[in-house]
Amino acid sequence: MISALNNVEAITIFSDDVAASRSFYISIFNASVLFEDDVSVALRIGTIVINVLARSEAPELLNPAPVAKSGGGASVMLTINVADVDAVCVALAEREVTLVNGPIDRPWGRRTAVFLDPSGVPWELAQELDA
Q1: Which residues of the chain have pLDDT under 70?
Q2: Which residue in 84, 73, 76 sits closest to 125, CA to CA?
């Protein structure tokens, strides 16, 4: 491991609708806004910064690497460790968040469920099961 790489500071999500993503992260995660402008919003969730950037601005950051087209499928999944997946799923349903799958007991000892943010980024809820 390269020791300089052990301090993840932010996750940038390319969004087709920054305003919808902003509302989603504030409503679902109780995120606080750190910065925002016409094409982005930086939000704090616990110790992580989620930077939501308009997909149209992403090529400037990644050039010459390509940016995935909208709806092109997931290439990342973010996981949140929770004490009770079922209870969190009920709370998400109350906010009209639809699950992609779950809750499911997985063979690797976790109960999981997945939901999507407005840009299609999958978030996994994960609860460790008692052995």
Answers
A1: 1-5, 131
A2: 84
